Amino acid sequence: MADKLRAQQQLEALQARYIGIGSADTTKHEWTSNIARDSLSSYIGHPPMLQYMSIGLGQPREKTRVQLLERMIQPVGPPPKVSWDIRRA
Amino acid sequence: MSLFSTMSLYALTVKQPSATQDAISGDFLGNGKQQILTANGSRLAILEVSRRQKGFQEIYSQDVFGIIRRIAKFRLAGGTKDFIVITTDSGRLVTYEYMPEEHQFRTIHFETFGKSGIRRVVPGEYLAVDPKGRAIMVASTEKNKLVYILTRSGQTRIAISSPLEAHKPMTLVYCLIGLDVGYDNPMFAALELDYSNAEADPTGEAYHELKKELVYYELDLGLNHIVRKWSEPVDRTAHALFRVPGGPNAPSGVLCCGEDNISYRRIFNKSSSVHRLAIPRREGATEDPNRKRIIVTGTLYTLKGGEFFYLLQTDDGDVFKLTVDVRSAVVWNIKIKYFDTIPIATSICILRAGFVYAACESGDRVLYELESLGEETEDPVFESTQFPVDPLADYAPPFFQPRSLVNLTPVETIPSLNPIMDMEVSNPAMEDAPQVYTVNGAGGRSSFRTTRNALEVLDLIESPLPQTASHVWTTKLTVEDETDTLIILCLHSRTLVLKIGDDVEEASNTGFMAETNTLGVQQFGEDCVIQIHPKGIRHIQGIQFPDGDAAAVNVSLTDWHPPAHRTIVACATNNRQVAIALSSGQILYFECDSDGSLAMAEEEVILDSTINCLAIPDVPEGSVRAIFMAVGCSDQTVRIYNLSPDMEGNILRSISVQGLSSPPSGLTINYMSDKSPRGYSQYLHIGLRSGVYIRSALDEMTGDIGDTRRRFLGPEPITFARVNAAGEPAVLAMTSRPWLAYTHPRTAVLQLTPVNYIPFKSAWNFEGSAFKGIICVSASELRIFTFNDLHDNTTYEAIALKYTPRKLVGNHELGVFYVIESENNTMSAGTRKGLIDQSRAQENGVDGTMNPEQTNGDMLNGHGADELPPAEFGYPRAQGRWASCIQVVDPVSEKAVVHTVELEENKSAVSAAMVYFESRPEDICLAVGTAKDLRFTPYKYSTASIQLYKISPNGRELELLHETEVPEPPLALLAFKGKLIAGIGSDLALYDCGMRSLLRKAMTPNCVPTRITGLKTQGSRLVVSDQAQSVTYVVHKDQVHPNRLIPFADDTVARHTTCTDMLDYETTVGGDKFGNIWLVRCPAKVSEASDESPDGLNLLQDKGYLGGTANRLDLVSHYFANDIPVAIQRTILLSGGERVIFWAGLQGTLGALIPFSSRRQHKMFQQLELQLRIDDTPLSGRDHLAFRSYFTPIKSFIDGDLIERFLVLSRDKRESIVGHLTGNWTSEMVDEAIWNMRGLYAF
């Protein structure tokens, strides 16, 4: 029992420290948003990748960077409506 | 079973990436001058700009083996030198000091804060430093921020605190700067956006109500913690911050830039004290007056006396000068004025010396000289009083007229291949070695470049001769002379003497024997000159030109004649010694007597074979004679004789013999700088008749030959001339073309580079009063040239292109290239012309109807109607529009674009291939894939087609035959078995040419999972690359009707393939979008089975495996290159070289992958790499093995860039590393092995 509690605490500590660590209750929206945000920040962070995309779009790197950051706010659309009984369950 | 893999490659960077990630100016040397620190790819470099040299000089550069993300500088109070702080993908904060004496970076701090790699929450994306150097803040794109406090402990040590955290979850950071607050507590300002509200709102309304905030973080130095002090909402589009100077009598605060918005905000602002400017827009017929600009980069510059201004660049490239009206530390007004237009830059640095350095996003980096600060120009000035604080309120947008440079003058450019869009290595110019053809750049600055391995020379003099000359010498008259006085030319059985004065004229009465060939000329003894000719030696004493004219006086002549029936065939001389070889195989030796006359030695050498060449080094300083003589004999040997008496008092004793592979044709001995403790050593250079060049160290005491380097230079016998190149002793080797053997200024190893000059057969060092250089004769021309810089061993030729090039197709027989170009979000040429014509007509009053939406006509003036040159100003933008064309480039004879075909109707070219159709044997065709109304994210288009152009017989004209509509954009085209194969979306289709359209002969729907982006072929096999799913091997079966294209093998890893090439029938090398290079191979059994049946029924019956084809490819090797490979090719690079894999990266990297041929060498390199990883850990703090295994573990690759670090390590470190190698390696042998890997395969 103590082990279980400890594991639970460790998981919580990790969840607080690193974003994107899931749990049994992670929804599809949370999961996909996380992946999309990770990808977008990787595009911003790797200079050759940002340049590659900027050339494709025909715009300066700064503009592409800001566009990608804007997309990180809500990468896969708004969260789904949570119906009352799911919340109860 | 062997534990070794069957293949191993040596990855060598031939040309470093030139895309600048960041550039800052500062005093990193601590000498009171300013330098520029740039980060390109994984390389840090310090550049010095000097007014004296009118340009750049790279002081130091080093590969840090990590992805550099940001660089910054800091200087502690009382310091005299800027220190460097960088963030990379290492998860560490590393700070350096540059040590000018040792030529290296010294790591000061090395603080681990997170995981390695570029991740969303690991800080490193943003880096800000307190202007007083008291604290550093690093932030990630989301959530995490860390602050380090720097303090001085003792005189020199700088202590760093453990990090303080300022995390805020669900918050994105757009920009981070350190504020200037004088000596108050350090403050940082960040642009943040908290998205937590939108995350919980299913209606999607909260998303639109999110606010961007300007947040101030204060570091309380007393309490040692960081607080989020203040935040205020700013414009939703804001994305950049600039620091405003603070301290006493300065306002402090930030400039916050967004779309059409530059606002000044004070610290702890009241909304009333915000000052806002709109960003002026371009005026012109082709400009959309409603388009808003953003600021992409900028810089603050503080003048002496505390005044300051900003240069801010918009996304068009226009630079504005922003000034702030400060009255008693309060901002009253901010003003903006057009400054000049320069190419879009990632960083702009203003140097105190009056230079502006622009690290351009594409194309050459430019250095400008600041002519004025833009106060005199008549451009309109806009003030913040004109604009409302709220950017959403109404205001009259400001306009200006772009014009050519007034305040800046370009001084110098650093050639840069960045970005390379496509590359091909070929030899249409029919030179010794192939050339590298690349298409580079983006937008109006696009270019087609030819890169050659050659040294750039500066041509000084070129003058015709009356007759073809075979040899040239220059000579002084006395030993004290500083400069050369005479030029002696050997014409056909005649000798011509020229005197160098104010101009060069023929000298008379010099005593030289005119009616003979000359073999050698030497200033001898105090004031004599000797001329060696086949029939003897003429000794001329005291040549003088008393009146400054060309007639000499006071000449006393002595002639020496060889024994009867013998002629002189070769000679070697220095100031005090002469050796001649006779046709009988005798070598006679003379020394300078006390009166300057020739004294023949009693000893002589008699050889059985004929003597081809002789060499004596110059008299070493402080000695009376050189110690050794080298003799090249036709029995394929070089023998060394002593010239100074040995223990028994004998001279001309054979010391050593070296056997050669071919008779020697040239010999010379000189001193060259190297890595020896003394800094230079004596070297023997041997040129063979077969065109092989050999350089060996010649021991000064013993005469032993060792440390040999060999290389094939050209298919003709080699002769030498000792010269001075850029102040260093070097040897010019002349064969089918001239080469220079010199010591590389940075690595101090031997470098052999062809000279970018016409071929010549004779050259000599030239030291005039006005200039120093090399004199050479080529046919009937006399030329003098010089070398300026020995750092760069490549030369470039650029031809301007119209739009961003996408693909290069070479027609090698005719020496032309076809380039398809397209430009996204840009007005097409037709529309531009239409708008300009319309506005002209309006101006002339012909057309009365005004259309302000399109033309903004009422603001036009005289020169507004002309199109701005796109190389400087870019193209007018238009959302969703494409400008595209096909250009024919002739880089060989005309060196220009010879033909242009514009694509109309918003079509853009996406692929091209040169095709010979079996059904149209008389023509060559160019197939071009086009897409109409193409858009990305999401991928959309209205129609797509393949256009077929007929290429004229000379290759220079294109004529449209027909256009065939296809269902999806054809991103890949390839000539295949007399037909055209095309990747149409995910379908692979085979087309033949018909009268009015292409005719589909075979098709495999859904051949690959995503989209076909590339095709390569050998025989019946096709390698099809997919945009996201690696490569698929497809076999074509033409024995059945309809033909079948059957995919039979694919890959296990989803590689976002950018380029591929087939190495052999089974193996493919490719690159992907994440910067990896990989080799995959089809298993032998699968490969055989695919070609077994003529109809491919066995393949069709194979069941697919896990949603793919029935078989899988094996991974052979894998490497992370940190640059996106855009083209890869199996080719030779040097004349007589072996085949290597050559690749080009987007950021301007050119690299070679060289297969190992010897297991012993491979083992040594493996051990050396391992040892270097431990003993020379990368500067970035990144683990080298982890860096090269960034996405997938490195396999069967050795990093040549790391290996070459061995060359620049200190002597004891080298020895300790070599001590760890098994197999009796010495550091000289390791040096030679490293040299051979570069010298024999690449450059």
TrEMBL record, chain A:
Domain of life per record: Eukaryota
InterPro entries in the cross-refs: SF3b5/RDS3-10 (IPR009846), Splicing_factor_3B_subunit_5 (IPR017089)
Biological process annotations from GO: mRNA splicing, via spliceosome
Protein name: Splicing factor subunit
Organism: Trematosphaeria pertusa
Any one GO cellular component localisation term in the record: precatalytic spliceosome
Pfam families for the chain: SF3b10
Similarity comment: Belongs to the SF3B5 family.
From TrEMBL, chain B:
Domain RSE1/DDB1/CPSF1 C-terminal, chain residue ranges per copy: 883-1207
GO molecular function, one term: nucleic acid binding
Any GO BP: RNA splicing
Main location: nucleus
Superkingdom of source: Eukaryota
Subcellular location: Nucleus
Domain RSE1/DDB1/CPSF1 first beta-propeller: 21-384
RSE1/DDB1/CPSF1 second beta-propeller domain sequence ranges: 461-787
This protein's UniProt keywords: mRNA processing, mRNA splicing, Nucleus, Spliceosome
Nucleus listed as a keyword: yes
PANTHER family linked: DNA REPAIR/RNA PROCESSING CPSF FAMILY
Family: Belongs to the RSE1 family.
Name this protein carries in UniProt: Pre-mRNA-splicing factor rse1
Natural source organism: Trematosphaeria pertusa
